[in-house]
Amino acid sequence: MLQAENIDLYYGASQILRDVSLTARPGRVTAVMGRNGVGKTSLMRALSGRQPIRGGRILWDGRDIARTPPAARARAGFGAVPQGREIFPLLTVEENLRTGFACLARDQRRVPDVVFELFPVLRDMLGRRGGDLSGGQQQQLAIGRALVTRPRLLLLDEPTEGIQPSIIRDIGRAIAYLRDQGDVAIVLVEQYFEFARDLADDFAVMDRGEIVLSGTADEMVSDQIRRYLTV
C-alpha cells in the first residue's frame, strides 16, 4: 500500500504542494482531480521520485521511500505513465516496450501477454516507430510499457488527454481489468469527470496545491467534485 503523508513540494522558492496526503490500496483506483495547474502532475512526480519533496513522508509497504531515487522505486514496483506519454519516437513499439526491462531481473525480461490482450494494436505494430503512431496508440504504448515492469503501483497522469473516444474506452477497460485483478494499486490523475467516476473507488480533489475534498466514491457528491473542475 502507498501512503503519502503531509507532502510539501517546492520548485525553487515556490511551494507547489502543501500538506498533501493520499492513500492508494491494491485493487482500488484513487482518482486525483482538479483544474490545470493545481499540483496534480507535481504530486505524481513526487510519488514516482522525479521531484524531491521538502517535507512529509511517502510510505511503501510501511517503509519511507521519500529519498529513494526513481529507478529504485521502479524496481520496488512503481510503474508510471507520465502526462504527454514520453515514449521514444525513434524506437519501434517493441523497443519501447523492452525499455521496461531495465528494472526487471533477467529471467523476467519478456513482454507479458496481458499487454497485447489489453491493447491488441500494439502486437500488430511491433515494428513501427513510436513516433509514427497516433496519439491514442502512443498512450496505449505508454501504458503497455509501464505494465512490462510488472507494477504493484500504477501512476497514470491524464491518460485520456487528447485521445479519441474509442481509445478512451479501451483505456478505461484496461484500468478496470487491472483494478479487478486485486494486486495493483492505481492512482489516476484525470480531469474528465465521467471517466474517473466510472473507475474510481476513492477520490482526492486538489485546489491550489492542497487536497480540498477526499473520500470514497460512495461518500463523494458529484456536484462538489465538478465545482473544482470548472474554470
Describe this structure in words.
It is a single chain. The protein has 231 residues and is of the alpha/beta class. The chain folds into two domains: 1-77 and 152-169 and 179-231, P-loop containing nucleotide triphosphate hydrolases (Rossmann fold, 3-Layer(aba) Sandwich); 89-151, no CATH class. The protein is built from nine helices and ten strands. Strands 6-7-8-3-9-10 form a six-stranded mixed sheet, sandwiched between helices. A four-stranded antiparallel sheet has the order 2-1-4-5, with helices on one face. Strand 7, helix 7 (165-181) and strand 8 (185-190) form a beta-alpha-beta unit. The longest helix has 17 residues, at 165-181. It is globular, with a radius of gyration of 17 Å. The two termini are 34 Å apart. The mean pLDDT is 95.
Briefly, what is this?
With 231 residues, this protein is of the alpha/beta class. It has nine helices and ten strands. The protein folds into two domains: 148 residues, P-loop containing nucleotide triphosphate hydrolases (Rossmann fold), CATH 3.40.50.300; 63 residues, no CATH class.
